[in-house]
Amino acid sequence: MHKFDTKVQHLKYKVLREVARQAWKDTLLENVLDIPKTIIPGSTPTMRCCVYKERAILGERVKIAMGGDKDDPNII
Length: 76
Hints:
There is one protein chain. The protein has 76 residues and is mainly α. The chain has one domain. Helices cover 55% and strands 0% of the residues. It has helices at 7-24, 28-31, 35-39, 51-65. The protein is globular and about 30 Å long. The model has no long low-confidence stretch (mean pLDDT 88).
């Protein structure tokens, strides 16, 4: 039995886990921009056309995981 049905669910889990890990170590605000690079290292995309688009989407997911509004430009 698999833990996740889709790759998107697994990616969401990775984002939430990394945000929680950084918050627990009290380094979230210093490392918030590095979280997408931590989750998707290297230059090979996994689901989208390029790694930059994947990291941009992960950056938005990180903002939401931190409790922010994805449409608020003042967050991060």
